[in-house]
């Protein structure tokens, strides 16, 4: 196994928290049957070869905070907190256009099955809510679609439910798709940034997570740095730094 791509952010007897890079699957998936490297195996290596338990999802192209439990009881406890909305999550995204300054997207989503063989079957629709706020906007003198200039925004996203691809689907729903999103984004914009910066990536990062520790009862807040590939694209926002001075937990 090559060098471990995970950056350890925190560890105690119950938890292992890491930064997962973009492009790394959390665990084996029927969608990527031929993939051989997973965050789960690298986290197990950090844990001295002992088993760890992912307590939430983080899509392959998304970078950022990833929490593993070091025992089944902790996994169950944190998992229940996730399902009951007791875990605060913050994401940073770069989107096409300028959304309203802040708001809530309350738009139910149809479940997306992992197994392609189930794609043709009717799937249930679940409630889904995401809050957001704009942190910065920019306009570049490049005609990508029908206008002589192109507008983008940096937004913080706070999912209040945990549906598959929720943030990507919700931003598409309000016509401000995330840059680099191959499935729900705008191809011309994705191609422009991939060509300008020499590589394409989903401009979505899990930057902060907070929840009550299942053993100590203390409020734990974990933050992850942005990857260099993210910072390179974010450079089109002159003077913007993250986190902003007024950044607060979404809890």
Describe it for me?
- Keywords: Isomerase, tRNA processing.
- GO terms for molecular function: RNA binding; tRNA pseudouridine(65) synthase activity.
- This protein has helices spanning 39-46, 72-83, 166-173, 187-197, 228-234, and strands at residues 7-11, 15-20, 53-54, 63-69, 88-96, 102-106, 109-110, 125-126, 129-140, 150-159, 204-212, 219-223.
- With 251 residues, the protein is α+β, with helices and mostly antiparallel strands.
- It has one domain: Pseudouridine synthase (2-Layer Sandwich), CATH 3.30.2350.
- Strands 1, 2, 3, 4, 5, 6, 9, 10, 11 and 12 form a ten-stranded mixed β-sheet that branches. Strands 7-8 form a two-stranded antiparallel sheet.
- β11 (204-212) and β12 (219-223) form a beta hairpin.
- The protein is globular.
- The N and C termini lie far apart (38 Å).
- The model is unreliable at 247-251 (pLDDT under 50).
Labels describing this entry:
single chain, 251 residues, disordered C terminus, 12 strands, alpha+beta, 18% helix, Pseudouridine synthase, ten-stranded mixed β-sheet, two-stranded antiparallel ribbon
Structural domain tally? 1
Give me the CATH superfamily: Pseudouridine synthase
- What does the radius of gyration come to? 18 Å
Mean pLDDT: 91
Tell me the β content.
Answer: 25-35%
Q: List the total number of helices.
A: 5
Task: Assign the CATH architecture.
Answer: 2-Layer Sandwich
Helix-strand topology string: EEHEEHEEEEEEHHEEH
Q: What is the strand and helix layout of this fold?
A:
Elements: E1 7-11, E2 15-20, H1 39-46, E3 53-54, E4 63-69, H2 72-83, E5 88-96, E6 102-106, E7 109-110, E8 125-126, E9 129-140, E10 150-159, H3 166-173, H4 187-197, E11 204-212, E12 219-223, H5 228-234
Parallel strand pairs: 4-11
Antiparallel strand pairs: 1-2, 2-4, 3-4, 5-10, 5-11, 6-9, 7-8, 9-10, 11-12
